[in-house]
Amino acid sequence: MQLKYPRSRQYNNRPHSVYVAYFGNNLAKAGIMSDSRGRERLYEQGAILYAIIGSFPNATVAQNLENRLIQKGLKNSITKKQKSTVFEKDVNIAEEKNVFTNILKKLGYENVEIVSNLDMFFFGAYPKQPIESVGNNVISGRIAGVIGRYVVLENNERYYGTWLSDTFGHMIDIGSDIILID
Fold first, then answer.
1. Cα separation of 52 and 126, whole Å?
2. Of 15, 42, 81, 87, which alpha carbon lies 20 to 30 A from 135's?
3. Is 49 exposed, middle or buried, given 0-12, 13-18 or 19+ CB atoms closer than 10 A?
4. Which three-class secondary structure string do you get for 132-176?
5. How is 56-93 classified by DSSP, letter by letter?
6. Quick check: 52 and 18 in contact, CB under 8 A?
7. pLDDT tens digit string along 67-126?
């Protein structure tokens, strides 16, 4: 155990940034990330929008701002259910960006860059239609995108989503045969 502490201290002494991730439905969370990871941490969140609001010399300073943002009303975590519920309707990215801009403005961060990666998550273009939850149903389809750890499959011009962690222990057959869903 003592071997890990110096490594953690070294990691925490590296530059860190504070971000606000926005998931739609007026849900936003504050978080920190090591600058050495680049934007990977943001992509893992599965947010529809995000903004980096500050860069700091170490994790401690970054955590101080993160805690202040949480005290001002931002969440420190968002559940999988809350994240997937957003996609059960067509996400109007322009409307959601306005909501997120207002959240940031109330926090005093109106001049930060807001970024969306929905088109990247969908390998070219967000489908602009609801994504139905797979639930306990058997599903077959083409992987249309991955939002954080939420996998989106396209089948018969409809979209279905499932959490990668919910597939553990299930057989996945990768091939070109797709069983169409009516």
1. 23
2. 42
3. buried
4. EECCCCCCCCEEEEEECCEEEEEECCEEEEEEHHHHCCCCCCCCC
5. ESSHHHHHHHHHHHHHTT-BS---HHHHHHHTTS---H
6. yes
7. 999 999 999 999 988 988 888 888 888 999 999 999 999 999 999 999 987 777 887 678
What separation, in Å, do the N-terminal and C-terminal C-alpha atoms of the chain show?
54
Whether the Cβ atoms of residue 19 and residue 32 lie closer than 8 Å to each other: yes
pTM score of the predicted model:
0.82
Torsion-angle region of 124 (φ positive above 0: left; ψ -120 to 50: alpha; else: beta) = left
Contact of 112 with 104, CB cutoff 8 Å = yes
